[in-house]
Each structure stands twice: as C-alpha cells, then as structure tokens.
C-alpha cells in the first residue's frame, strides 16, 4: 500500500491533529453568533439563511463575499439567483444561471441551476426554451427517479402550451416505465380533465409488470402480468410471483402450462413448500437430465442434494453432491456443493479421510471466502486425523492474513496469532485530484461543516476517480460526515489492510458506549451487530419491517420499549439512534443472558428469535461453536452469525486495546 494512502488515513483516523475538520454546521449557533467577518463565516451565514428560506438576509451575506471564495462561486451565484428571481430581477438571475451552466459544467449545482432557469422561462411564458432545458436534463439524468421528475416537469410545460397530445405521451411514458413514482397515475387525472381516454394495451402492462418484477414488488407485478400477452416468459414470471407471494398451489398450476427448466425448478420449490420434499427432490434432480445445458441444471442437483441432507438421507445427498461436482464443477453452486460434500463426510459420517480429500482438492482465488473455508475445514479435518502440526500451519496461515475474515478470526482464536493494526505517518493528502476545483471545494465545505454540498461534489469526484488513492479519499469524506454506509461500501470495493477503519467504523459511539456500559455488553460486539444489521444507516428498513440501526422488528420493539421505559412508543421512534441503540442493547443482553453468554447462539436468537435458537441449542449445543454455526438450519441466520463474528474479529483487531 503506498505511503499516500497510509498517511492520509493516519491523519483522519489516528487523530494526529493534522488536516482536521470542523464539526457539522449548527445553523442556530451560526445565525446567532456575531463571528469574525471572514468570507467563510459570511458563506455559512448565507447558507443557513438559505436553509431557512430567508433569501433577503442570505443575499446580504453573499454580497459581502464578492470573489473571495473562488471555489464556491458557483453556489454563490446560484443562491444570488434564488434571491433575484424572488425579488423580481429575473434578467440578472438568468445571467448568473447561464454563467454557472457555461463555466461550472461539473458543479453539483448545475442541475438545480438549469431547473431554476427553466422555471424563470416558464414564468416568462418562454415554454420552448424551458422545454429544451428539461429535455437536456432528461438525457443527463443518472437515476430513474430523477428522470421521472424531469419528465413530469416537461409534461407540465406541454400542459401550459396546451399541447395535450405531447403531455399525454409524456404521462403515459411515466405510467409505463416509472411505475413506482408517486405521480405515475397522474395520466388518469390528466385524461379525465381533458376529455381523453387512456386505455393501456397489453405491451404497456408488460412494461409495468417487468418494472415491478425487477424490483421484487411481486403483488403489483402479478396484477400487471395478468393483463400482459400470455407468453411462456410471462406465465413463468406469473408463477414465480405466486411462489414469492406464498401461493404455492396456484404457482404450480400456472407453471405447469410451461415446459422449461425454469418452470420445473419453481414447481419443485413450490412442491417442497407444501410438504412434499422428496417429490420436489426428484423433480429438481431431473432437470440436469432433461435440460443439461440450463443454468437450472446444477442448481437443481444442488437443491435436491440439500433436501436429502436436511432430511438426514446422507448417502443420497452425497451421491447428488458428487454428481454435481463431476458434471458442473465450475457452476455457481459447484464450490458450495463440494464444501457440503466435505462437511457430510466430516460431520455426519466422521469419514475424515474422505473429508480431507474433498477439502484439499479444490482451488479458489486466494483470500476468497471459499478458499478460506476449504482451508479452515481442511485444518480441522487434519486435527481429527491426529496431524496437529499440519493443521496448525494452515490455521497460522489463515490467521496471518491481513484481510479480516470469518475464518481468519477463528484461526486467530485457535492460534493466538495477532496482526498489527494499520499504521502510518502524518502527512497530507494533497496529491489526490490535482488541479480539480471540486476537490478544493469539498475540502473548504468540510472545513466549514457544510456536509450536504460536500457530498454532492464528492459524487462528481467519484465519477472521475482514476486510482485507489482517490477512491479512498472519497470514502473518507463519507466517513467524516457520518455516512458510514457509503464509506463501508467503498472500503469493501477497495479491500486492503489500510481500509479497515473505513470498513469498520465506530459510528454513533456516544450511544454505543453509553448503553454497552449500561447493559454490560462488549461495545465492539455492539458495533459489529450494527454494522451487519444496518451499515450504520439509522433509517434502514428491512423486508420484515425491522427498523433502525439495530434492526428491531415491531413485535420485539414494542415489548422492549416497555421494559426500557420508552413511553408512547411508535415505530418511528426506532429511527432515533439513541432510542434504537438502547433498545437493541437491552435485547442483545436479554438473548446473551438466556443463552449463558454464548455469543453465536445469542446472535442466532437475535436474528431468528430466541424460541428457535433455544431449539437449536437444545439439539446441537454440545457441538464446538464453529460446527454449531455450520449446522444452523436457517441459511440466512448462519450467514448472519458468520458476518457478525467476522466483524467482531475486525473490531477487536482494530480497536481491541483502546
């Protein structure tokens, strides 16, 4: 890792005092405070008055700045334009906006400048120029939501021009291709107001159906597919929707009309769901014979084997896993099937020689999860065979990995091996994005504590980043402003030892420290749980309606709220970090107490519920904890426990002695 990256994160995370940033802007304090009359203070006051929609006072402070903040002139011109438009000086506002569009083509404020200019043209009745701007914005839109908003504005311009057909066409496009926006159904209101009739055809419904299907909105997709051309593809997707909606018998009826590998696969899964596991296994295992080249061939073999494994038909499962390995060794399920084969030999049959052969004879990219998993269980198998020295060497190799993984952490527990924390020297990061105005703008805004605009500018820098240094600089911006979800994402994409602080942040530390101490919890475990539950996104909502940092589901939250004294509780209170962390810590302490401080089973209880976890503990609690985790019946819970233990190992490595 080069010196620049190491140095930069030393500055940021080891708190050297070099290149430190201001706290997030407090507008109440800024407006009341009679600070030194510097350009920076004037900009902050102007920004705060803009936030409060007090354009007159904002303009007073903007006028004091003049040209003294060249890196912020695009925003200054835009804010002045807002004031000028409001005060009626639209001509001067247009000149400022055109200057932004011409001279600051990469600015994050350019889109808003175009929109404001279009609004002025509309006010002046110059609809053609406004239309031109919105067509350009539509072409440049980077998200479906933004594009839909601009299309709506264009439709409104056509309404003002009395161009009913053009407006109708625009609103139809929104209804067809952007079905999830709140104004998608406006076309019906428009048609009613204008004496028109909107009758979608089957292909319109198909576009909408596919839009919902791609986003897993199964009920809406199913309704729209019903009105679409009844092709084999549509019938298959209808059956999948029924399956996802747990209408298994109906799914079988629909899918039976289609002869394909995919339809057999979903029929088999529906058959399994209604209690006919072995019939499902027969169907799944037949796919590779009837459709050997299909992507569902290997998947069918894998899932057939898994059914027999779950039903304790070990010999049958082994045969299918062997067939999968022989026929589809490089398929998506090939490595997982091979591991399962080794596990059955190891755990079920105690045939350690065969297990060793399986765990030894597969190669994967180094540092991949598959590679580490096969190495770890190869070492465990060697221990069973009495070859402890050979096993120790593998455990030590895994433990020495600079990348913190689930298996490297388990290996460190076994060997006592410790890895060094990220280190560096204190120099600045001036070499990233040399000569780019947006970089200087971001640094200035961060110094001021104006994070919202800084993040907007960082998006542009991200689009032009050319190397790891610049990627990590952008990630550090997200880290600094508390946008940990994005800093973790970036760090994971650029995985290396130096990104550890970015990937494993101590977000919301005030609350984590407070309630970890109150409920006698290891705060590093709490950080690990938050990281894997929500990536420190306090507004996170799961498919099961779990909410907030520690992802409490409604029924658990209501019970916990009473016990911790959260009065007049509502689910929205789970979006308050302080409340969520206290309730999550209380519940984590509850499951730890119930399972005698056994962290893996407590985590399983946190995820799948303590009643299920108690059943697993009673059946398998005597197993070594690494074997117990592999035997958790719910794959989602198994992976959940592994992820948190991996993160716990990372937090211990990075912060363990702090």
Q: Any overview of this molecule?
A:
With 658 residues, this protein is mainly alpha-helical. Among the domains are: 1-20 and 449-503, no CATH class; 25-124, Alpha Horseshoe (Serine Threonine Protein Phosphatase 5, Tetratricopeptide repeat), CATH 1.25.40; 512-655, Orthogonal Bundle (Lysozyme). The chain has 37 helices and no strands. Helix 19 packs antiparallel against helix 20 and helix 27 runs antiparallel to helix 28. Residues 1-20 and 424-428 have low confidence and may be disordered.
Topology overview:
Elements: H1 3-13, H2 27-32, H3 39-51, H4 55-65, H5 73-87, H6 90-103, H7 110-124, H8 127-140, H9 144-160, H10 164-177, H11 186-193, H12 202-214, H13 218-226, H14 232-244, H15 248-255, H16 261-273, H17 277-290, H18 295-310, H19 314-327, H20 334-348, H21 352-360, H22 369-384, H23 388-399, H24 406-415, H25 437-448, H26 451-464, H27 468-480, H28 484-493, H29 500-503, H30 509-518, H31 523-534, H32 554-564, H33 577-594, H34 599-608, H35 610-620, H36 625-630, H37 635-655
Please give the share of residues in helix.
Answer: 55-70%
Low-confidence stretches: 1-20, 424-428
Broad CATH class of the domain at 512-655: Mainly Alpha
| Shape type | globular
Could you report the average pLDDT, rounded to the nearest whole number?
A: 91
The name of the CATH topology of the domain at 512-655 is Lysozyme
């Amino acid at each position: 890792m080069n010196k620049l990256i190491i140095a930069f994160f030393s500055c940021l995370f080891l708190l050297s005092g070099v290149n430190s940033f201001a706290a997030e802007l407090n507008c109440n304090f800024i407006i009341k405070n009679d600070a030194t009359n510097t350009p920076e203070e004037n900009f902050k006051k102007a920004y705060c008055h803009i936030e409060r929609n007090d354009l007159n006072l904002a303009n007073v402070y903007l006028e004091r700045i003049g040209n003294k903040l060249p890196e912020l002139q695009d925003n200054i011109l835009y804010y002045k334009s807002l004031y000028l438009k409001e005060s009626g000086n639209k001509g001067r506002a247009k000149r400022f906006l055109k200057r932004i569009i011409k001279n600051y083509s990469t600015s994050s404020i350019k889109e808003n400048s175009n929109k404001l200019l279009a609004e002025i043209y509309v006010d002046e009745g110059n609809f053609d120029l406004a239309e031109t701007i919105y067509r350009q914005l539509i072409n440049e839109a980077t998200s479906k939501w933004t594009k839909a908003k601009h299309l709506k504005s264009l439709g409104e311009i056509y309404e003002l021009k009395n161009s009913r057909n053009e407006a109708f066409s625009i609103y139809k496009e929104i209804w067809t291709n952007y079905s999830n926006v709140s104004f998608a159904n406006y076309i019906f209101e428009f048609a009613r107001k204008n004496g028109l009739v909107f009758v979608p055809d089957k292909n319109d419904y198909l576009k909408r159906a596919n839009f919902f299907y791609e986003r897993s909105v199964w009920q809406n997709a199913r309704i729209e597919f019903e009105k679409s051309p009844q092709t084999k593809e549509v019938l298959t997707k209808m059956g999948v929707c029924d399956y996802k909606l747990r209408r298994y018998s109906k799914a079988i009826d629909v899918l039976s009309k289609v002869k394909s590998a995919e339809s057999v696969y979903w029929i088999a899964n529906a058959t399994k769901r209604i209690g006919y596991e072995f019939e499902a296994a027969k169907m799944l295992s037949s796919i590779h014979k009837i459709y050997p080249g299909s992507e569902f061939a290997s998947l069918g073999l894998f899932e057939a084997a898994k059914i027999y494994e779950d039903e304790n038909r070990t010999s049958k499962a082994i045969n299918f896993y062997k067939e999968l390995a022989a026929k589809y060794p490089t398929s998506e399920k090939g490595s997982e099937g091979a591991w399962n084969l080794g596990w059955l030999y190891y755990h079920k049959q105690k045939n350690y020689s065969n297990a060793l052969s399986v765990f030894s004879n597969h190669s994967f990219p180094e540092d991949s999860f598959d590679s580490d998993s096969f190495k770890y269980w190869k070492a465990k198998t060697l221990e069973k065979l009495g070859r402890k020295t050979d096993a120790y060497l593998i455990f030590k190799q895994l433990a020495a990995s600079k990348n913190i993984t689930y298996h490297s952490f388990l290996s460190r527990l076994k060997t006592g091996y410790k890895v060094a924390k990220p280190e560096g020297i204190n120099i600045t990061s001036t070499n990233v994005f040399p000569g780019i105005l947006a970089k200087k703008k971001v640094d200035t805004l961060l110094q001021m504590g104006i994070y919202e605009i800084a993040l907007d500018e960082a998006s542009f820098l991200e689009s032009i980043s050319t190397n790891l240094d610049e990627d990590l600089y952008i990630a550090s911006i997200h880290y600094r402003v508390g946008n940990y979800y994005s800093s973790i994402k970036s760090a994971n994409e650029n995985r290396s030892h130096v990104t550890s602080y970015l990937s494993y942040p101590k977000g919301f530390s005030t609350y984590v420290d407070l309630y970890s101490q109150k409920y006698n919890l290891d705060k590093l475990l709490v950080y690990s749980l938050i990281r894997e539950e929500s990536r420190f996104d306090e507004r996170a909502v799961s498919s099961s309606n779990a909410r907030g940092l520690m992802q409490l589901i409604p029924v658990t939250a209501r019970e916990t709220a009473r016990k911790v004294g959260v009065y007049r509780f509502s689910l929205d209170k789970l979006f308050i970090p302080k409340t969520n962390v206290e309730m999550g810590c209380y519940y984590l302490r509850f499951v730890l107490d119930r399972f005698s401080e056994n962290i893996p089973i407590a985590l399983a209880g946190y995820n799948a519920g303590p009643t299920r976890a108690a059943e697993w503990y009673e059946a398998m609690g005597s197993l070594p904890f690494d074997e117990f985790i592999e035997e958790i019946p719910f794959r989602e819970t198994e992976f959940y426990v592994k992820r948190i233990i991996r993160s716990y190992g990372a937090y211990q490595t990075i912060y363990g002695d702090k």
